[in-house]
Amino acid sequence: MQDIRNIAIIAHVDHGKTTLVDKIIHASKIFRENQEFEDLILDNNDLERERGITIVSKNVSVRYGNTKINIIDTPGHADFGGEVERVLKLAEGVILLVDAFEGPMPQTRFVLGKALALGLKPIVVVNKVDKENCRPDEVHEMVFDLMFNLEATEDQLDFPTLYGSSKQGWMSEDWKKPTDNIIPLLDAIIEHIPATEVREGSTQMQITSLDYSSFVGRIAIGKVHRGTLKEGQSIMLCKADGSLKRNRIKELHVFEGLGKNKVSEVKSGEICAVTGIEDFEIGDTIADADNPEALPRIAIDEPTMNMLFTINNSPFFGKEGKFVTSRHVRDRLMKETEKNLALRVVQGETEDKFIVYGRGILHLSVLIETMRREGYELMVGQPQVIMKEDESGQKLEPIESLIVDVPEETAGKVIELATQRKGELLIMEPKGDLQHLEFEIPSRGIIGLRNNVLTATQGEAIMNHRFKDYQPYKGPIPGRINGSLISMGTGDAIAYSIDKLQDRGTFFVEPGEEVYTGMVVGEHNRQNDIVVNLQTSKKLTNMRASGSDDNVKIAPKTQFSLEECMEYIQKDEYLEITPKSLRMRKIYLDENERKRMSKSAELA
């Protein structure tokens, strides 16, 4: 008899999910000798390690006694909600991880709501009880209230709670009595999470994620819902449009430890990887060849933001990247939509323009950063929020719930910044030595807000937001007030010129950096854009002027991250992205053309 438990670990970003999975893998070394491995085993791509976040959900399995536990590590950001929604379909239960100081956060609510709606049994782990100021008992109450508000069933409300520190590797039923291992958690999984059912009947398996191997091509991953899959079996693939395609299973693999094992058959309830199936999409059902029955499709929340992606046509194009043509960019975006369910790509007005729809700035910036590291060059426009209309023709826009934890003395500044952007303060309460603020704010208002909030609070604010719903349009929101400093010519920026122009604003370039005509090189301290010449050098004479030969003193340039650049650019600007550089520029590089275009826009 197979004894399998499938469990997903869900939590807000940075509450310790991936660290906990590491410790479970380490704990299972008790049962077999294993090689050495580093921390955060599952966050294996560079971007995930650098940002300290999980982007793609991953599977791993451990054996405890005679039971096999399949663990699915999920992302915590709402921008990657598409990942979470589909992997919850694989699980029979969830481990809900909550920080002992912060308590349930907006993201916790989002993923927990999805899990409860699917009828999954939760185990609550109050993590980081070794932190100062932690309040495990209060947090336990808060989790209970949250589940009650999310309409959990009586069985779900009767959840077991464990306390511990995944970093230090212990779990216990009483936080005042630390143990020296995480075995209590494994015992709780065996005791409370139901074993997977074995359903007899014709074959059914929904594809919930995909993997790729250069040897066998695309690999379908999912949980066998009913019946048995066998190597070499003929199956029918049920597609989204209702069409059926005949296929044959080449090989079957189940997850074992950090790798996969090849098997000849897989019974229902087990998570497996299937090779040899062609032309499938996530959400398709692998069904019996003679009597195919499709499972209901996975519903994914709609995207809330879009951006224009286009080829790089700046004077510096092709200097730093390998893939620069529209065909390269199109193929890469189409490949991404196969595995990134919440992403949509639509052809723009011309062949080299694509409108990419996503869940938010982070969702889109992770895609851009990944492409950039793969050697792509491209340009993106200002992020646009997706508007809708209701039956009466009223304009609706996406609204987010925003939570900011901030030191008391700067709370006023944060409230002022959020309300300027049509935010509405709903809750203000002390939380330890911080003020806890909750707002409802249009998605448009969040673009560029993080920078301002961090500046106003000396970097001490903790900001989180997630999509709530569509509500009537709240009216115009003031954008960036200051204009841009635009380069007049092409060539290296010269220290002498930058020094003479410092009273005009702050610069984003430093002496010796190459700039081109129409590139945004700084922020003007007034509202209008001005064109500046960075290529003038000092006139040389044989007269020595007293005092004017002092060394040039230049303020350091302002450094922007990718997300900050995306939030900073205006409607008439593009962000040029290459593997080595991020440059902001005007859409029309020539000054006369810009004037002509702004006039024709005014007349229109």
Concise structural overview:
The chain has 604 residues and is of the alpha+beta class. Helices cover 23% and strands 32% of the residues. The chain contains 15 helices and 35 strands.
What does this structure look like?
- This protein is an alpha+beta fold and 604 residues long.
- It is built from 15 helices and 35 strands.
- The strands form 7 sheets. An 8-stranded antiparallel β-sheet has the order 12-11-17-8-9-16-13-14, with no helix packed on it. The chain has a 7-stranded mixed β-sheet with strand order 2-3-1-4-5-6-7, sandwiched between helices.
- A hairpin with a 5-residue loop joins β11 and β12.
- The longest helix has 14 residues.
- About 2% of the residues have low confidence.
Please write out the topology.
Layout: E1 4-11, H1 17-27, H2 46-51, E2 58-64, E3 67-73, H3 81-87, E4 93-99, H4 106-117, E5 121-127, H5 136-149, H6 154-157, E6 161-165, E7 170-172, H7 183-192, E8 204-213, E9 217-226, E10 228-230, E11 234-238, E12 244-248, E13 251-256, E14 259-263, E15 265-267, E16 271-275, E17 285-288, E18 305-310, H8 326-339, E19 344-347, E20 353-358, H9 361-373, E21 378-380, E22 384-385, E23 388-389, E24 395-407, H10 411-420, E25 424-431, E26 434-442, H11 443-446, H12 449-456, E27 462-472, E28 484-487, E29 491-492, H13 495-500, E30 505-507, E31 514-515, E32 520-524, E33 530-532, H14 562-568, E34 573-577, E35 582-586, H15 591-603
Parallel strand pairs: 1-3, 1-4, 4-5, 5-6, 28-33
Antiparallel strand pairs: 2-3, 6-7, 8-9, 8-17, 9-16, 10-15, 11-12, 11-17, 13-14, 13-16, 18-20, 18-21, 18-22, 19-20, 21-34, 23-24, 24-26, 24-27, 25-26, 28-32, 29-31, 30-32, 34-35
Helix pairs in contact: 9-14, 10-12
